Amino acid sequence: MKGDVEPWMRQAEADLSAAEKNLAIAQAYVASLLVQQAAEKALKAVLLAKGNPLIKTHDLPFLAERLQAPPAVFSLCKKLSPVYLETRYPLPSGKWRVFTRAEAEQDVEMAKEVLA
């Protein structure tokens, strides 16, 4: 399992880089989705590094809890976790959530902290 850690972290870093590129072309929702994925992959890499099996979930607080992550990381995960569904599915009203550049930039910064 530990051999799987490097590809997971490499992909997390690639997702973060792609998010920053999407910010540059004003694709805020894509940037936010990618940083949620970056944080998820980084958390899964740490789980694998600690000898845990891969958990197929997109729930960042659940993953952070399994890792006994510091409270600051857990808090960031709670903020980033909803982004996965909000970028992929419309709201109950049938409308899509609009992500602003400022929100996406904040999501990028939060993901950087999780990856660190």
Please describe what this structure looks like.
This protein has six helices and no strands. It is an all-alpha fold and 116 residues long. It has a single domain (2-115), classed as Nucleotidyltransferases  domain 2 (Four Helix Bundle (Hemerythrin (Met), subunit A), Up-down Bundle), CATH 1.20.120.330. α1 (5-24) runs antiparallel to α6, α2 runs parallel beside α6 (101-115) and α4 packs antiparallel against α6. The chain is globular. The relative contact order is 0.20. The mean pLDDT is 94.
Structure characteristics:
Four Helix Bundle (Hemerythrin (Met), subunit A); 116 residues; single chain; 70% helix; mainly alpha
Tell me about the biggest sheet?
none
Percent of residues in helices? 55-70%
The percentage of residues in β strands lies in under 5%
> Poorly predicted ranges (pLDDT <50, ≥5 residues)?
none
Mind sketching the topology for me?
Blueprint: H1 5-24, H2 28-49, H3 60-67, H4 71-80, H5 83-88, H6 101-115
Helix pairs in contact: 1-2, 1-6, 2-3, 2-6, 3-4, 4-6
Give a quick summary of the entry.
This protein is an all-alpha fold. The protein is built from six helices and no strands.
